[in-house]
Design a protein that fits this description.
Helix content is 39%, strand content 17%. Helix 2 links the parallel strand 2 and strand 3. The chain contains eleven helices and 13 strands. The protein has a domain of 220 residues: 3-Layer(aba) Sandwich (Rossmann fold), CATH 3.40.50.720. The protein is globular. With 342 residues, the protein is α/β, with parallel strands linked by helices. The structure holds nicotinamide-adenine-dinucleotide (NAD) and uridine-diphosphate-N-acetylglucosamine. The site of uridine-diphosphate-N-acetylglucosamine (UD1) has 20 residues, from helix 7 and strand 8.
Length: 342
């Protein structure tokens, strides 16, 4: 990439957004982060600059505030938007569905209106494999029926539908919907990574907190699934591979109007015990764990068919489970309390 296009990155201070900003800056894009810091820290901005040696613009704002978005786009004209901003805790979305519909759905509507009124028609949207719901068949391809099982997943599905309707109504839009599988790992510098608030729900951050001594034991939810070793299988993907997928999506959209939906995963499933073993190798010690009953709502296996991303985006995940665990551990070790110095 040689032309210096400017990209608005909503939610760019978050876990996936920060890694994508590094990737964008490294290939020569200019970056404007728009984030209300509801689940992130301003320190991230300094770390992104430190890794890349490049400057970027940070605007603190909420995607539900259309006037603030339009002001941001007037001050910092952008060619495209990568839209990460959103709430993502599945359990919380079941307890507080209105909060999720307001933040994710209303926020996305306001963003799309601000884009239209600012004449920006290129967007890459963070969707999730959660839109598929329970597998009818595996691997999940993009034609698999969509049936999310929680309000968080519903917000992703509704936003996907809105984007498809926008494309039908005005086909000069350029839209890429990316359905992520299970992002893990961290930038190899150990300067940025995932910083979950409270008790982590997801497997790898939980293992990392046990390994660093913040929690006593990993509970393994179920050992009686019909899988390789009885534990749940997921498609873990290194967050820097995921970040690279967004660069490819922007390149794919560059030339003409189109709408693409693509899975981003490795296509390979790993069980909880395989992840635990790989993490123990990274830490070079054993990690206490106990087997418990299945977690309600969990499926035995979920992994991606990545043909569309491989063939159309010319993207393929490169990093294996060992490097995911090594980099996740490096980040956790260097930042035992995340971005919070205490
Ligand atoms: P994250 O919470 O680390 O990042 C989201 C960022 O959005 C945060 O910095 C937060 O402050 C910001 N934000 C939230 N609501 C906002 C609002 N109203 N206005 C402005 N900023 C707001 O999450 P992440 O893991 O980086 O996920 C990024 C996106 O990818 C989300 O949309 C998420 O749903 C999606 N996704 C994540 C995963 C995952 O496992 N991490 C999987 C699939 C999809
Ligand atoms: C969860 C979310 C999903 C989201 C995905 C990636 C739910 C129901 N689904 O899915 O919407 O897209 O994260 O962020 O929350 N496990 C343990 N012990 C733990 C934690 C997890 O054994 O402490 C097991 C789980 O049972 C599962 C596997 O590890 O088999 C992965 O779990 P998790 O990281 O939560 O991801 P998903 O279940 O895929």
């Amino acid at each position: 990439m040689t032309d210096s296009k400017q990209i608005l990155v909503t939610g760019g201070a978050g876990y996936i957004g920060s890694h994508t900003c590094v990737a964008l800056l490294e290939v020569g894009y200019q970056v404007v982060i728009y984030d209300n810091l509801s689940n992130s820290h301003e320190e991230v901005i300094h770390r992104i600059k430190k890794i890349t040696g490049k400057n970027l613009t940070f605007v603190k704002g909420d995607i539900r505030d259309k006037d603030a978005l339009k002001e941001c786009l007037a001050n910092y004209p952008c060619d495209a938007v990568i839209h990460f901003a959103g709430l993502k805790a599945v359990g919380e979305s079941v307890e507080q569905p209105l909060k999720y519909f307001d933040n994710n759905l209303v926020g996305s509507l306001r963003l799309l209106e601000a884009m239209q009124e600012s004449n920006i028609k290129t967007i890459v949207f963070s969707s999730s494999a959660t839109v598929y719901g329970n597998p009818v068949y595996l691997p999940f391809d993009e034609k698999h029926p969509l049936a999310p099982t929680n309000p968080y997943g519903q917000t992703k599905l509704y936003i996907e539908e809105i984007l498809k309707d926008i494309f039908k109504s005005a086909s000069d839009w350029q839209i890429c919907i990316l359905r992520y599988f299970n992002p893990v790992g961290a930038h190899e510098s150990g300067l940025i990574g995932e910083d979950p608030q409270g008790v982590p729900n997801n497997l790898m951050p939980f293992i990392a907190q046990v390994a660093v001594g913040k929690r006593d034991t990993l509970n393994i939810w179920g050992r009686d699934y019909d899988t390789i070793d009885g534990t749940g299988v997921r498609d873990y993907i290194h967050v820097t591979d995921l970040a690279e997928g967004h660069i490819r999506a922007l390149e794919y959209l560059k030339d003409s109007s189109k709408l693409l939906v693509a899975n981003l995963g490795t296509g390979k499933g790993s069980s909880v015990l395989q992840v635990l073993n790989a993490f123990e190798q990274a830490v070079k010690t054993t990690i206490p764990h106990a087997f418990k009953n299945r977690r309600p709502g969990d499926v035995a296996e979920a992994y991606a068919n990545t043909f569309i991303a491989n063939s159309l985006l010319k993207w393929k995940a490169k990093k294996d489970l060992n490097s995911m665990c090594r980099d996740h551990w490096h980040w956790q070790q260097k930042n035992p309390n995340g971005y919070n110095p205490k």
